[in-house]
Amino acid sequence: MKTALLETPVIVDSGSSSEILMEIRGLYKNFGKLEVLKGINLNVHKSDVLVLIGPSGSGKSTLLRSVNMLEKPTAGQILFEGNDLTQAKRKDLCRLRERMGMVFQQFNLFPHLKVKDNITISPRKVKGLSAEEAEKKAEALLKRVGLYDKWNEFPGRLSGGQKQRVAIVRALAMDPDMMLFDEPTSALDPEMVGEVLDVMKALAADGMTMMVVTHEMRFARQVADYVLFIDDGQIVEAGPPDQLFDHPQQKRTQDFLNKVL
Amino acid sequence: MISLPKIWEIFTSKFSVFMQGVGTTVELALYTVVLGSVLGLLVAVFRHTRILPVRWLMNAYVAFIRGTPLLVQVLMIVYGLPQLGLKLPRMTLCIIALVINSGAYMAELIRAGLQSVEKGQEEAADSLGMNGVQKMRYVILPQAIKVTLPAMGNEFIAIIKESSVLYAVGVYELTYQANKLSSVNYRYLETMIVAALIYFILTYTMTKLLALLERRMRRSENSVA
Lengths: 261, 225
Prior knowledge:
- The complex is a heterodimer of chains A (261) and B (225).
- Chain A is built from 9 helices and 10 strands.
- Chain A is an alpha/beta fold and 261 residues long.
- With 225 residues, chain B is an all-alpha fold.
- The radius of gyration of chain B is 21 Å and the shape is flat.
- The model of chain B has no long low-confidence stretch (mean pLDDT 91).
- Classes of the chains: A alpha/beta (261), B mainly alpha (225).
């Protein structure tokens, strides 16, 4: 008679010495009968840059979207700065989301608001900053990404790369402890990918904690502290970029990398 | 036989009578479009609430109003409310009836506008820590209203025309005035042509004004997302 091995949960952890910002334990997500996430266990340390790669439909975006509860997990815990997001009340969830910036594939800028209002609306209305404070901050951030001349423009007049940079600034204006990037360059024309990745590199260099879902393998290699290969709703393999890209241990990782590299 | 000079004569000799009718019609339409929009907005927003009974009530209201004739609604309100002891001026009762009617249609228009706002907008607002009210107020509603505005303009035009049913309850709006004149001069066709032309001038002007407004709005923003 065969004995089934009890699966001991391996907690994926970059091994960084800085404090843990987020702990994800036993995270499951079903869409109807479809199991998209099948038991994710992950620690995120302060200043970690985690890059999530994997085939489409692997669950990497769902994982990222679960992290700030845009998707409600079916089971499991997400501890962020000591609070379990999955159990948080609506009001507390708003407070916690303030501390996590999110950047979307489709930018999702507010088309009816000028660039400056896109950036300042949440600091003013959610955090209660004065218009001056919020604008001062927005100005400094926009200058950093080289878009201060678009201050009074509507998003409709910006290129894709400019929109995404404004979207990053909008998230940063809330002073988040962590930034989530959901395929931030996938909707961009190739010549605009660089300008967005440069902003993200600078952020990483500043010590921002980041989780990035991307198909940009070069970016992953350059910027990631830790790369997570996700397939079929699980973290199949994780490691520092040179290890994961150059010496993948798992067959599935090898197959995937052979296809994309 | 129809006589063109007679049309002109009726219009000029009874100018003040017609104008009194126009004044009342425009007054009714203005009150209705403003208050109807507010009501429609509230109903549309409350149809999104998590409190189910409120949602059912709103849905029932919209379904009932859209499924029954305006004239019946007007008679119910204008004669029915006083019967319940609510003694209000006739004009106020008429406005209430029109607002209740128009609010249901406005709610439908605004709902379509709300649905047209992309899901990503809501997610972006969520990710920035906005609560439900902030999300609605600063992100969803402004975009929905912008989409809805042209349709609301059409609703205004519809109200101008539909307010003519109020002649049945003796409010001195345009149709009532014209009808009253005809019953004295026996020139139904000519008198009603005058009334029709006045209605047409009102609605046609509104159509042109709205088109202008729409073009202006589009220019201020340029394309989407």
